[in-house]
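in:
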């Protein structure tokens, strides 16, 4: 049955992106009708689920792939600074919601966990020192520490050093004011706030079709996953935040902007322990260098997680392969995405990334013993019997056409919007969740350009520094970081 009057906004997908956009829109336009469609029985069950991601509040404090080494050995902090700027906007918006009572006690979704890097070998130690030198005077990275002293590193993270053999150079950096974020808890609270403001959530509703009506609205065809009854609804604006399935739905919408895009699915596993004696000895997220040929999202890390108030440790990720675009997707996903306009770019990516394929095959063939050995490179005293292997979420890496190479594998996230702004979707992976607020602000600016001036004052109330930067304004950066840390109850 189709609704007689189009709703203003339909959001497809029950993850952090749709939740953030629902929260923003219902605050900016309380009279708009907003409906959210989620094919599963609850929200935050795919990549936003806390056990399907590492929960790192991605501010580029510890992720080395955001500052790759140049051919001349130099490191450029620009990308790291940009990602940190985006995370600060997310922090500001979350702080606004806490102050207004829209979401509850912040410790339910964000907690202080120092962010560290740890490397071994002369080359990587030199690189890490250069990275530290490039960041230490940047206002958004204030407080970063560097050490190659085993005693100091042992104080930061005892499990890294206990039992470690001498003779191999090593070094670490640390930022005390890192965070662990339970994006599942945050997603649920954002949706609850949006529903309180009038939004409607339809669980167990799978969107099957998207078709443009003659009047410019969109016909959304869906099917209930319980009972399988079909239905349809019209909407003036559609956002597709359906993870890996965003590609499939945007293809069904037929917008030319999606031409040439494909995705390459990568699954992941982590080793996890809840043993209180082990967990108590490690309070940090420690990232290192990715293996040769590994995608940046596969950077090994040993992480403190806080889920439902209980700390655990995760190590990984171990990459795997599944043809599905979602954990609860279809084994035909990787095939049904193929179109004449994206086949060439996808074949070019396969041709130009043999090291990635070699890496994935090696990961697929790796035994549990080999996985535990990788953990011991971080934690020399690790006992495999203390850790269980869990399967994390699916990541859909973007493949897109490139005028020079034919096609490239792109890391990060990308908003795809129709030229008329009536439909948009999000493709890609990390650091997506941490930067959900600026990404959704980009969607609003792109799809509702005529509302920019009208929304400006309200947005500045929610996010005081929207439209500006912090790192080039030390006093403002200190003021904003101090305020949001106080509101969120985390370290400055």
């Amino acid at each position: 049955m189709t609704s007689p009057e189009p709703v203003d906004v339909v959001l497809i997908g029950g993850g952090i992106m749709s939740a953030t956009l629902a929260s923003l829109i219902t605050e900016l336009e309380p009279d708009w009708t907003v409906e959210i469609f989620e094919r599963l029985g609850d929200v935050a069950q795919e990549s936003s689920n806390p056990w399907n991601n590492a929960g790192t509040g991605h501010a580029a404090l510890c992720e080395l792939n955001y500052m790759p080494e140049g051919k001349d050995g130099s490191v450029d902090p620009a990308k790291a600074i940009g990602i940190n700027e985006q995370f600060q906007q997310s922090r500001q918006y979350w702080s606004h919601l806490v102050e207004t009572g829209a979401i509850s006690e912040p410790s339910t979704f964000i907690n202080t966990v120092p962010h560290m890097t740890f490397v071994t070998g002369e080359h990587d130690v030199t690189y890490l020192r250069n990275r530290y030198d490039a960041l230490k005077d940047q206002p958004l990275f204030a407080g970063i520490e560097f050490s190659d002293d085993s005693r100091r590193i042992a104080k930061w993270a005892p499990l890294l050093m206990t039992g470690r053999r001498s003779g191999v150079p090593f070094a670490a950096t640390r930022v005390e004011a890192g965070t662990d974020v339970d994006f599942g808890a945050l997603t649920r609270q954002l949706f609850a706030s949006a529903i309180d403001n009038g939004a409607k959530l339809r669980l167990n509703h799978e969107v099957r079709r998207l078709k443009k009506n003659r009047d410019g609205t969109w016909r959304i065809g869906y099917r209930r996953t319980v009972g399988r009854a079909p239905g349809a609804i019209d909407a003036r604006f559609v956002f597709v935040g359906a993870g890996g399935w965003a590609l499939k739905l945007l293809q069904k919408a037929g917008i030319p902007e999606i031409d040439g895009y494909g995705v390459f699915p990568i699954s992941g596993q982590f080793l996890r322990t809840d043993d209180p004696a082990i967990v108590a000895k490690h309070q940090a997220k420690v990232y290192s260098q990715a293996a040769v040929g590994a995608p940046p999202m596969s950077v090994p890390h040993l992480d403190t997680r806080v889920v439902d108030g209980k700390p655990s440790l995760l190590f990984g990720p171990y990459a795997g392969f599944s043809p599905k675009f979602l954990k609860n997707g279809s084994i035909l996903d990787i095939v049904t995405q193929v179109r004449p306009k994206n086949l060439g770019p996808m074949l070019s990516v396969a041709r130009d990334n043999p090291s990635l394929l070699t890496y994935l095959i090696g990961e697929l063939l790796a035994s549990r013993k080999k996985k535990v050995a990788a953990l011991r490179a971080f934690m020399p005293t690790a006992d495999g019997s203390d850790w269980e292997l869990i399967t994390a979420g699916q990541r859909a890496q973007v493949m897109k056409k490139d005028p020079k190479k034919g096609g490239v594998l792109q890391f990060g996230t990308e908003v795809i919007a129709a030229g008329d702004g009536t439909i948009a979707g999000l493709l890609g992976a990390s650091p997506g969740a941490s930067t959900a607020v600026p990404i959704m602000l980009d969607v609003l600016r792109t799809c509702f350009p005529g509302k920019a001036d009208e929304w400006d004052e309200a947005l500045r109330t929610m996010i005081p520094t929207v439209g500006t930067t912090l790192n080039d304004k030390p006093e403002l950066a200190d003021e904003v970081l101090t305020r949001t840390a106080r509101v969120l109850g985390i370290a400055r």
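note: The domain at 7-474 is CATH 3.50.50.60 (FAD/NAD(P)-binding domain).
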